[in-house]
């Protein structure tokens, strides 16, 4: 049976094929980038809110 991204399990005793490993790595990198972008956006939004609170407090 040919390995595919849908049939391979990380708990398998077999090493993934180069194609499956490449796809796994690609998907992991995309997910990491997406979650990093979301976290960065939340950070800067919170920084903006906190800055506004400090400005109000100093007036």
Q: What's the overall geometry?
A: rod-shaped
Fraction in helix: 55-70%
Tally of contiguous helical segments: 1
> What's the rounded overall pLDDT mean?
90
Task: Please indicate the percent range of residues in DSSP E strands (runs of 2 or more).
Answer: under 5%
Span between termini: 71 Å
Q: Which quaternary structure do these chains form?
A: single chain
Radius of gyration: 21 Å
**pLDDT < 50 runs, ≥5 residues:** none
Q: Can you count the beta strands?
A: 0
| Main sheet record | none
Order of helices and strands: H
State the secondary-structure class. Answer: mainly alpha
Give structural notes.
- The chain is rod-shaped and about 70 Å long.
- It has one helix and no strands.
- The chain starts with 17 loop residues before the first helix and ends with a helix.
- It has one helix spanning 18-58.
Keywords for this entry:
59 residues, 1 helix, mainly alpha, 69% helix
Give the arrangement of secondary structure elements.
Blueprint: H1 18-58
Task: Put the structure in a nutshell.
The chain has 59 residues and is mainly α. The protein has one helix at residues 18-58. It contains one helix and no strands.
């Amino acid at each position: 049976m040919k390995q595919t991204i849908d049939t391979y399990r990380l708990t398998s005793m077999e090493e993934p094929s180069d194609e499956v490993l490449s796809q796994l790595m690609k998907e992991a990198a995309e997910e990491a980038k997406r979650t990093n972008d979301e976290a960065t956006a939340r950070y800067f939004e919170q920084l903006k809110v906190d800055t506004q609170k400090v400005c109000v407090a100093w007036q």
